[in-house]
Structure formats: structure tokens, C-alpha cells
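Our preliminary data section would be incomplete without showing what the modeling component actually yields. Below, a chain of 94 amino acids is followed by its predicted structure, encoded as C-alpha cells that our downstream tools consume directly.
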Amino acid sequence: MECELCGRSGVTCTVHHLTPKEEGGTFEPTANLCVACHKQIHALYSNQELAIRLNTVRKLKEDEKIRRFLKWIKKQPPTKRVKVSKSNEKNRKK
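Predicted structure:
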């Protein structure tokens, strides 16, 4: 399968609700994302931010916080296990 965010093929993908279910997105559009991209998105952004500002794949790709990660992950083999650390900015919002 191919990740709709990073474009890598041969990766295990999960369903990402572009508007998080907690923000009313149960029946809204979804995207197939590799585990690394999915984890990174939820580490960087709150559900509210995803629902309001980053609710399409295009908007995610254009966001500065994820762009550096995407540039790096595209070069990684599909078997690479990625550790994700939470954004300091996200931690301060809580």
C-alpha cells in the first residue's frame, strides 16, 4: 500500500480521520497513512488543530511542522521503525 502523505510504497498503512472522530469526524473523509506519518501527525498537532486547520492531505503536506519530517521519511525504507516525540508546542497547549 502507498502512504497518501509521504508517498512511500510497501508500507503498512492505517486509516487517519482527517477530521478526528473526537471532533465530529466519524463519517468525514479519511486518508491511508503509513504508521510513521500517522504517529508523527498526532505527536505534532492537537485534534482541534487537525479538525480546524489541517483536515486535508494537501493542507497537511503544506504545513511547515510536518514538511521537514516528510522530506526525511521519504528517504527511509518501508521497514524503518520510527520513534516519534511530541512537539513542545503541543505539550504547552494542554
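The two ends are 35 Å apart (CA to CA). The chain has one domain: 1-77. Preliminary results of this kind motivate Aim 1 of the renewal.
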